[in-house]
Amino acid sequence: MFLLGTISLKAQLQKTDPVPFAATIQASDLKKYLYVLTSDSLEGRETGTVGNEKAAHYIAEHFKQLGLPQKGDKNSYFQRMVYTDESWDDIGLKVNDEAWRHIFNFYALPGDNNDMPFWETNRILFLGYGIDDAKYSDYRGESVENQVIMIYKGEPMRADSQSVLTGNRTVSDWTTDVYKKLKVARQKGVKAVLIIDPDLAKNVSLNRAQLSRHLVGEPDKSPKDLANHLYISPDIAKAIIGQRLKKFERSRRKIAQGKPCSRLLYCKLQIRQKKYFNQLISNNVIGYIEGSDPILKNELVIVSAHYDHLGKRGQEIFRGADDNASGTSTVMAIAAALKTAQQAGQGTKRSVLCLLMTGEERGLLGSNYYVQYPLFPLNQTIANVNVDMVGRCDEKHKANPNYIYVIGSDKLSTELDTVVQTVNRQYEKLELDYTYNDPADPNRYYYRSDHYNFAEKGIPAVFYFNGTHDDYHRSTDTPDKILFEKMARIGKLAFHTVWSLANRQERLKMDVKVK
Fold first, then answer.
1. Which ranges in the chain are annotated with CATH 3.40.630.10?
2. 245 CB neighbour count, 10 Å cutoff
3. Kindly report the CA angle at 141 between 136 and 145, in degrees rounded to 5?
4. Between 90 and which of 13, 108, 274, 478 could a Cys-Cys bridge form, CB atoms 3.0 to 4.6 Å apart?
5. Segment (H or E) for 93
6. From 1.25.10, 3.40.390, 3.10.450, 3.50.30, which CATH number describes the 86-277 domain?
7. What SS3 class is residue 121?
């Protein structure tokens, strides 16, 4: 009889109708949560601020009222994260008293440089490619102690596209590893290196996360073994060269033939590089609903959102109603729906972690911290459902707000995408827009929200997103503009996605080859 009862219970759990529990996700509750998260007292929820801490405690109190167990640090709802913000306190470049703009005309990565509060010179040595190799050396016969040198990226290539160093079309590590040049420059006593970068705007975009670094733990203030350096635009290089352009071009042609040729350039140059370290403390917030199956409950589905935003700029509050009080409120409502199912004896087989993360706006810090120091084993985490900006409508869908962008669902497991499409067809019937899932999409949203840190660890992830609008990252992203009924429908879709993943018999198949 006991065995029959167990089989009967399992069959009942498999047939549980999730619709009544999804129906508890109501626009009125979402509105209540969101208006608290965007209130004056939270001041935009910037990571490491009092307002961010208040938001974390508000979410934790919600989990406490639901009766969720305290699975965070020291039997709390929090995963404490200490990190150091490393950025430029002061950075500047002047040529003949003309100031050039950091990020726009030049850039330098704080993590790769030492402090150099001020340096002025009237002599810059153009030193070709800054290479010191047995086959080719720009340094041979040169005195560079305490000098500023200007170099090109890469290495000399002959007219037939053959490398002077390798003798064929394959470039050497002097091209692929810029640090090799910078280490040599420091060893030889070079004061600073100016690297001419013809693709400066593109490379600023690619290195944006490194322009202000966010490091877990204490700051590393040990001296770098690299020479101080700045990547400069061709326009700055021309300003330094001045009237000597023809002579400079002759030097370039000699180098291309494999003949090192330096050129002393005279102009007034000023460089300022002073770093700033600020240690901040913030928390991920943990809401755990244990699964009902004695075996499958050891596996986990994570439903996530980031609760931080941009904070204040002067007296102006950036409330982040859509970004991402909308996603936070949605996960809070999903937690309540899952707990209601559990209390009714019809909870999910697998456990679900409702993870509200900090530091997304500073470079996906909270999710990065979680995957480095997971509270539950990552190899037992079967999927991540991430909700980031789900309360508005973009211009493309103005005529039909009942849509959602789906990103990442087929990147590691096509079965995850099948789950998304199946539950949407069965329950919410929203328009699923895969525009931003295209690998060629220039916005690269797949890499820009917290789900990506889980995907990097091999955990299939789907990102629900309503697209951007004119109020994105502005103080005008306010709660009065949120479409709460639309938001509730997306919340129900996310709930059904989590429900399906947490109740399926088998884990998702990893059937996509990662490039």
1. 20-69+290-503
2. 10
3. 110
4. 274
5. strand 78-95
6. 3.50.30
7. strand
User: Cα Rg for the chain, rounded, in angstroms?
Assistant: 28
Give the model confidence (pLDDT) of 249-306 as tens digits. Answer: 888 888 888 899 999 999 999 999 999 988 889 999 999 999 999 999 999 999 999 9
**Domain at 20-69+290-503: CATH code:** 3.40.630.10
Cβ-contact 287, 66 below 8 angstroms = yes
Q: Which of 428, 297, 281, 404 is nearest to 353 (CA)?
A: 297
Structure tokens at 477: 């992203």
Residue whose entry in the numeric block shows the structure tokens 């997971």:
374
Phi, psi for residue 99 in degrees, rounded to 5: -85, 130
| Kind and range of the H or E run holding 497 | helix 484-503
Residues present in the chain in total: 515
Residue 11 scores a pLDDT above 50: no
H/E element, 36: helix 27-37
Let me know: does 221 contact 277? Beta carbons within 8 Å: yes
Q: H-type helices in 296-404, by residue range?
A: 327-343, 365-372
Q: How far apart (Å, rounded) are the C-alpha atoms in residues 7 and 23?
A: 28
Q: Which two tokens stand for residue 204?
A: 């600023």
Percentage helix, strand, coil for the chain under 3-state DSSP, each rounded to 5: 35, 25, 40
Taking alpha carbons only, the member of 96, 409, 80 closest to residue 243 is 96
* Contact indicator for 389, 327 with CB cutoff of 8 Å: yes
**Hey, how many other C-beta atoms are within 10 angstroms of the C-beta on 259?**
13
CB atoms within 10 A of CB 374: 18
pLDDT band at 3 (very low <50, low <70, confident <90, very high): very low
Q: Residue 143's closest CA among 108, 75, 190?
A: 190
Q: How many CB atoms are closer than 10 A to CB 26? A: 17
User: Could you tell me the two tokens for 138?
Assistant: 């720009």
Report the predicted TM-score, pTM, of the whole model to 2 decimal places.
0.73
Cβ atoms of 377 and 325 closer than 8 Å: no
Compute CA distances 439 → 20, 29, 445, whole Å: 37, 36, 10
- The DSSP H or E segment spanning 286 is strand 263-289
Q: Tell me how many degrees the CA angle 283-44-90 measures, rounded to the nearest 5.
A: 85
Alpha helices in 234-348 (DSSP H): 234-241, 245-256, 327-343
- Cis amide prior to 324 (ω within 30 degrees): yes
* Residue 351: φ, ψ to 5°: -75, 155
CB distance 292 to 66 below 8 Å: no
- Which residues neighbour 205 within 8 Å (Cβ) at sequence distance 6 or greater? none
Report the mean per-residue pLDDT for the chain.
Answer: 93
